[in-house]
């Protein structure tokens, strides 16, 4: 069964472990959504679900918003990079510590008190599988929030120096940045 939707905004929560890191007190990077995982609401995001939305935002010169707990009155930073890869929706941005809530958010993430990311979106296309799960094949992405209670419970946040694998992740991220620079130069 295909579901075409034009309804109210929805949210997907994702607790991220090794997938997210905080560096320099304000830079945050990780996965806001993981493909193929069943969340606590019984939904599964399919690869490619964000592609059209990200292309439309880029064409309009707009960005996905970084919010605190999905509150549109509380922007706390900017996402400098939002893209799909084989794992899911990767985000990298800066928490703005010139904003009071941004200072609080950076401190809470670094301390491990906040350990989740969540997407705010509108479903464009979805189907129901034989187990009754909604499989999201296209969504209109509006925002990625830092949240207390994520929907995808098996992932966790790790602040810089907090998780034993954090150094390896930073090295891997540096290798990817270097590879991107090399590819851009060719």
Automatic annotation (TrEMBL):
BP term (GO), one: proteolysis
Keyword Ligase assigned: no
Highest taxon in the source lineage: Bacteria
Keyword Translocase: no
Domain Prohead serine protease as annotated: residue spans: 23-160
Pfam families attached to this UniProt entry: Peptidase_S78
Protein's name according to its UniProt entry: Prohead serine protease domain-containing protein
Source organism (scientific name): Meinhardsimonia xiamenensis
